[in-house]
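Why does this matter for the project? Reviewers at the last site visit asked to see concrete outputs rather than summary tables. In response, this paragraph embeds two records directly. Each consists of the residue sequence and, immediately after it, the corresponding structure tokens. Nothing has been edited or filtered.
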Amino acid sequence: MDILINSIAANRTSLGVRRYFRSVLQCLESQDEIRYTGVPPLKFLERTTELLLPGRKDAILWSPSHRGPLFARNHVVTVHDCINVEYAHRGDRRLPIFRKMCQQMFENAQAIVAISSATRDALHRNYIVDASKIVVIRSPLDVAISAPILPKRADQNRPYILMVVNSFLHKNTVRACRALTRSSALRRGVSLRIVGSIAPEARVICEEAGLVVEFHAGVDDVALANLYAHAIFLFSPSIEEGHNLPIAEALSCGGNVLCTDIPVHREFYDGLVRFCDPYDIASMTASIEEALSSNGSWQISAPPLKRRSFRDVANEYHALFDRISIGNLAKG
């Protein structure tokens, strides 16, 4: 069976989605014939080229992120979340046009893969989607980073809380930094390390309080694994996610995690992490305070879902692509 990858959707997306795509693809390559769509030489032509991709009668066209062609044959699109329409483009005058294009894409698609039940629910909140088209292929919990955990160097003894975030509204970094500065972190000599970025207002809050913040950009797997392993805990204050891969990565490195009590975090990580209120700063501060005073592993029970790997995820994609191919053959 041939799989045609929408190259633009695979490349013009977030780092987390690219990591997901590469991990699934690596497993699929042992089972299927993989080909790629062309990319125009000029970047400004990419969107139009992608929207008009025709697909092929004898192949599955897979868009591994929330974008793709409007009318292509045998199109399967993977949706990680609906944060783009619910948060990232909020207030943008072009948002109605973007929604309309996505609606058309979903209506034409052979299947829509949601990476979690929370993502499936977000699709229903934001679009009119045929429920029979949505296939939940849950992201894996077993996402171990293949990198050695190294001993701390002498210049790394300052304790720190880690956040792997960006400055978008749904990452909730302003409330998070207010809570951190109201906790005893500063008095305890705890710093904040950021992989990515935080909202400008959040940065000002930390500076005014005197909380030491270190920003890390372009970290490789070794650096990331060691940041997870040596942190007091990973703090993930999001108010919306599709899976939240950094939590799974931190757990795989033996780290503790404090995250917000939202449906997707309960879906994947109940029993493995500690939760806090994403909207109440006083409650969030109390949760940080409790976390700072806790030692040992916080994993209190087995995960609610089995330890899925990317191999499991790829096998479910392969089965889906196979069903579509067989169904098309039966139609003649």
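We now turn to the second protein, recorded in exactly the same manner.
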Amino acid sequence: MKRLTSRLTAKRSAFGVLLALLAVVAFAVPIAAITWGQKDTSGRYPEVGDIVYVTSGGDTGGFCSGTLIHPRVFLTAGHCTTPLAYYWSLGAIEHVSVSFDADPFGAGATMHEVVDIVTHPEYAGLKPMSDPHDLGLLILKEAVEDITPATLPSEGFLDDLRANGLLGHGTNGAKFTVVGYGASLNFPPPRFYSDDVRQYGFSEFRALLPGWLRMSQQGRTGDEGTCYGDSGGPTFWESGGSRTIVATTSWGDAQCVTSEFNYRVDLPGSLAFIYGVIDGLN
């Protein structure tokens, strides 16, 4: 099932709706959710979390998904961190946290305080370009000790998969896992609703581009995918009992039923940005 742009909770406020609208208008992108997938009730992807904000007026909402990649570093999309940092700097958002609970607004959910928001210095919005650097990082106040961070890819990881003949499509095509929080998609689309829980699905490979991993999310062919609210969430390559985060949810078609374009983490510029921030914490 899919998620809505700038994932809002059932408790969403007028301010939260404004944030969602601004994200869509300013960046011309659906911030996505999982479509045709399933809820992560067994805690299969504990390293995937939801960004939660509290406004100066005390309203609470969810804003994009992401992944723990270091005990104090949470990876998400640049089109998520840019508006989030802006409203935080104005004081309109008072607190930003990350929850790794499957239901971040359920009883007993744990919040991890965010102390800094860093967007890739070359991010320039999701304009038509081969490499928009659509990455952002949240720095947590304290290390998360009970969750193992996701494994980052080596440089050119996806290129190596293609060179080794592992990125076919069609019969027995390569499948990637997408995970996130947000509104779900009913049929016939677009009929969105919010249930505010972590979900996952499997998308089939379609093309490897200079900055993007493009995948199918057509339910009629058995594919699942992302939609509004899953932005920043991970795309995992799972093989031999291990999984590697190879991309983050970036954009797709407005109805969330055709294809998704997820920004590559295995690019030299992506990894240099990530490791540069991590090294600065040590």
